[in-house]
Amino acid sequence: FTFTLDDLSGLRRLASTRAKLKESLAEGEEAELLAERRNLCIDENGFLRIRNPPEVRSFVVSSTADPELAAASTHFLTAAREERGEAPFGLVSVMSFSVGDVVAFDVQDKQRFARLKRQLLILRTDIICLQGLYTSNKGGSEECFGSSLAATLSEEGYGFVCASGMRSEGNAIFWDRSRLEVLSTTEHGSALGVDLRPFADPTCEICVACLRPEVPTPHSQTLSGLCSSDYATKHRRLIVCSDLAALGGADGASVIEEFSELHSAMREVLVGEVMMPMAAPTKTTGARCPASGLNTLHSPDGMHFKGLAPVLALSGHTEGYLATMPSEEVVQQFPALRLPLVAAFDWTNSLVESNLGSHDQDRVRL
């Protein structure tokens, strides 16, 4: 990726800096000065180039998705609001994001919280599930941030419900009020379930669950407690967004019995769970392996489903890019020290079990 100085003229902050530089530099010296920066260089053709360009996440289309629906869905999720048009019929998009670590550890960094908000609003998905979010304002920093974030999303047209547990835990589900209506909500401790109906299809009902499960005990949060005891038949369409760090990560989801009947959206579309840097104990930067000096990586979050067909999912980053990222850049790119998971589904279709089970051999049922 190369560019000229004129290509940067549309960036207001850089434009003002350029104006100041031109007053003190002769013609041609400006580019040479910029090329001395650690992130820029000049190639053999005289163009500026980023030395180590960042990896950009992109949408990956499911191999079983209808090409026309996939193209329309990609445009709808990535286009500017005034250019989006009507959503493709049958499309429901979901974001799952665990923000509990940065909120619970009382991280006082307004710029970091601002970057986190921008991550949530870049893609206007129909549903946003936030694990670890507190939305009551009782004076604590986590409650204040949760209430501020809820107010921001409400101004963007989202409705929401939240649940809080006995150990200062919280989860929240937001939905686009112009696209979905709420039929019912269920709380089980801090776990939360919401039944939603698209305005475009009154016959459709989608159950969305948001939780942070732990190793099962008689009092554990369960999907059956969120979506009624007969969720497997009544709630034919089910999307579960979860922070699975307490189970060792997304690969340990089947420790919870109900998860063994669900399918991972990331694994089905991306052929693997999304990796992300592990947070250091202070939650202010990523953890590093003492032996190698590389960032420690894990896959703590999952998005599981049944009764729908995956259309696309937002890719992760490569292992090499994440492992070698400088520690000061980890929190810059990942303000919550987690990556948001994003996927879109077709509620009018459901993959045949024989096709959907391409990764069944990776599941362990206990």
TrEMBL record:
It comes from the Eukaryota. Gene3D superfamilies: Endonuclease/exonuclease/phosphatase. InterPro entries: Endo/exonu/phosph_ase_sf (IPR036691). This is Uncharacterized protein. It comes from Noctiluca scintillans.
